[in-house]
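Attaching the record inline, Q. Sequence:
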Amino acid sequence: MRSFVTLSMIVKDEAKTLPRCLRAVLPFVDKLFITDTGSTDDTIAIAKAFGARVFKFRWVDDFSAARNYALAWVDTPWVMTLDADDIVLNPWNIKPLIEDSARQQATCLMSQYLSTPTLTIGRPQIVRSEMYRFMGAVHESFQPVKHPDKHVLSMTDLKIYHNKPLERAEPSARKYLDIMLAKDPTNYLGIADAHRFLKQHEAAYEHYVKALGVESINDETRYMCLFEGAREALNLAKQEPDWVYVVLELLEKAIAFEPSRAEAYTLLGTVFVLLKDRDKAILSFKEALSKEEPKHPVGAVYREYYRRIPKAGLERLAA
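Structure, as predicted:
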């Protein structure tokens, strides 16, 4: 029977996380290709024990370079990528989703990527192997490099949970930030996200504003830049109260740009609570609760802003 889909991964020192990732997904792919970028633990031995074909790549501070090297070995029509700390929650859907998408002439399948327990990101996860390569030194993503006119997205119900160990999260953010500042300084969104994770609020705010000036970003990303910029400005307002006017301006723009989303309304309700404007806070939280959570996001969705946070806000105001 002809092989259909390859799982392609890049890894380094993932002996603790790799087995769990592979146990979940391996029965549902045809081939497993793993590229190691310099492990000093048992990662390579574990990969081989799972039947992987293992390659080695010298790390050059560029995730796309490593992933594209890995992709060059793929010889199946479709390729799926994962990180070692990813867990596919419904792997039995992989091939049916590919088959269904292929019938619709789709070339790129989006997963619902649970980056944290409350944050879902629409992420390109499975693609036609000959059409796509990765772009970006950090936060790399698939881009069509052959036949871009045939690039067709398919929104799927494939769910993946990113289970990065907490002790690795901050060092990773610092590493990513250093790489982006050195190699990809116009990746304003990625730089902003790293600063945000490291609680460097003013730098994060400044880079979200810079990202808004990039004409090529999609609507979902533009909305989230406004929202994330407002969150960072709100953190700054705790020390300098005048920042609250920046928060209100960004949230007004976010709501005008995408009135069907709840995140900005929920944060606006929180701001009005701080400003002791009870009536406006209630209206904002109620508006947030009226919004439906996007089922197949292209960008990021903060799920707790659709129910838990605005509901809790109304309950506190009613007490």
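The chain has two domains: 5-162, 186-318. The radius of gyration is 21 Å.

More tomorrow.
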